[in-house]
C-alpha cells in the first residue's frame, strides 16, 4: 500500500523474489498526496487503503511508503495485527551509516526532520556525518511521470547534497523509481565519485517473506496474479506506472493498465 505508485518498487522487488505470489496493490489516487496532510488525516487515509487491501485477505501487508510508516504504522498494526502482519518501510539509514562515511538522506519534507527520522539517525548513525536533504516536489513529479519536473526536483536536491557524500539513502519509495536520474545528478555534483545508494524495496520484501516464514525463490514459475485497488475500488495500473521499469515488469502479467 501507498498513496500512489511509490509502491511499484516494493511490488516489483517482491515479484522478482517470488514470481508465484499474488500481489494486491492498494493506493489512494483520490486522497493523494499524503505528505501535506496532518498526521491524523494521513492516518485516516492510510487506514482506508489498508482495509481495502485487507478485504482481499492477504498474508501480509507492506506499507510501501515512508511517510505513512512514520505517521500511521502504529494505527495500521492496531487495526490489522495479529491477523495480518504489517511491515513498515524504514529508510536504510543503518546500513548507509555503517561504513562511517558522509551520508545524505533524501526524503520528503514531511519525513525530513521528523522525530522518527531523527530517532533513526540518533540510534544508527552516530558514527557517520549525516545531512538530511528535503526533496519538495520530487514524489509528485515521479507520480505524474513528469520527466522535466523530476529532473528539476532532483537537481534542486542534488544542490543541497554535500559534494563529499559517500552514501545516499533514498528515503521515499517514489525515489527508487528514478534512481538513475538521481545517480546522474549526483555524479555531476561529486565529480563522478563512486557512491553507494540505499533503497528499501528489496529489504522490505525480504522482511515480509521472513515474517511469513518464507524464503526468496526467484526461480519459481511466474504464476502470481496482480490486483489493483484505487482508493478502495478495483481498477487498473495507472498509465504513469509504465514510465518505470518496475511498472512494466508488473504490467507484464497481463494486468489491466489505465489510459
TrEMBL record:
Task: Check the record and name the InterPro entries matching this protein.
Answer: Asp/Glu/hydantoin_racemase, Asp/Glu_race, Asp/Glu_racemase_AS_1
- Coiled-coil spans are none
Highest taxon above the source species: Bacteria
Task: Set out the biological process GO terms recorded for this chain's protein.
Answer: peptidoglycan biosynthetic process
Alphabetized, the UniProt keywords read: Isomerase
**GO MF assignments:** glutamate racemase activity
List the Pfam families.
Asp_Glu_race
Task: Name it.
Answer: Glutamate racemase
Amino acid at each position: 500500500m501507498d498513496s500512489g505508485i511509490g509502491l511499484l518498487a516494493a511490488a516489483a522487488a517482491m515479484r522478482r523474489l517470488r514470481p508465484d505470489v499474488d500481489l494486491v496493490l492498494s493506493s489512494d489516487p483520490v486522497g493523494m498526496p499524503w505528505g501535506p496532510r496532518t498526521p491524523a488525516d494521513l492516518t485516516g487515509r492510510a487506514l482506508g487503503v489498508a482495509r481495502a487491501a485487507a478485504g482481499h485477505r492477504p498474508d501480509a501487508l507492506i506499507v510501501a511508503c515512508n511517510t505513512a510508516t512514520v505517521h500511521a504504522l502504529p494505527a495500521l498494526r492496531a487495526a490489522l495485527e495479529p491477523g495480518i502482519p504489517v511491515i513498515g518501510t524504514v529508510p536504510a539509514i543503518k546500513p548507509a551509516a555503517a561504513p562511517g562515511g558522509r551520508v545524505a538522506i533524501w526524503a520528503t519534507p514531511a519525513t525530513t526532520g521528523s522525530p522518527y527520522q531523527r530517532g533513526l539517525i540518533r540510534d544508527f548513525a552516530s558514527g557517520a556525518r549525516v545531512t538530511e536533504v528535503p526533496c519538495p516536489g520530487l514524489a509528485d513529479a515521479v507520480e505524474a511521470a513528469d520527466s522535466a519536473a523530476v529532473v528539476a526536483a532532483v537537481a534542486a536536491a542534488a544542490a543541497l547534497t554535500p559534494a563529499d557524500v559517500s552514501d545516499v539513502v533514498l528515503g521515499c519509495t517514489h525515489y527508487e523509481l528514478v534512481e538513475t536520474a538521481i545517480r546522474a545528478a549526483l555524479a555531476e555534483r561529486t565529480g563522478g565519485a563512486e557512491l553507494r545508494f540505499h533503497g528499501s524495496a528489496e529489504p522490505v520484501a525480504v522482511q515480509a517473506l521472513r515474517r511469513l516464514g518464507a524464503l526468496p525463490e526467484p526461480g519459481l514459475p511466474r504464476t502470481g496474479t496482480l490486483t489493483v485497488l484505487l482508493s478502495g475500488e478495483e481498477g487498473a495500473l495507472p498509465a504513469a506506472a509504465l514510465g518505470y521499469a518496475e511498472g512494466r515488469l508488473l504490467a507484464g502479467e497481463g494486468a489491466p493498465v489505465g489510459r
